[in-house]
């Protein structure tokens, strides 16, 4: 089955060449194995390109499927092959509105276990709450997105097209952003508003059912 990861090498024109690693997502140790002497980590990174000359945004929206990939590495050959490693988090439960909604969380090999354990525990708890009918799926996703951003400075994105594109649903995915973007408070307030609206909708649904 593998633990899939994508490895993006920055070019002089600030675009990226993208490669694939079948086992690079199991841990983030690949970050220490990519060097100027071993740019493909002794074969752990496949030689053929997945894509070339693409922007960082397109890495996420066109190639980093959060259902499939577990890690992303950004490599800067001009900086002596410095590597930034990210854990990929899938922000859905299998049948929600945005099957490709995900986040990347920057983490080194020491911190990545805590990130993974925290995310799995939080997501499992929310799934139980949804199943009990105490929280709508929409509100749970908004809450999960907010926690990923607040607790771990996560970067949100949507891979591919949203599953639910019907007009009038009132659902707007949270805008994507990279870690260096500065409009944190505006985005966090938007997430909080979505969470509150979702709770009110859920309460009305339960009242109508009763």
From TrEMBL:
InterPro entries: DUF6735. It comes from the Archaea. Residues 187-210 have a biased composition (Basic and acidic residues). This is DUF6735 family protein. Residues 159-210 are annotated as: Disordered. Pfam families: DUF6735.
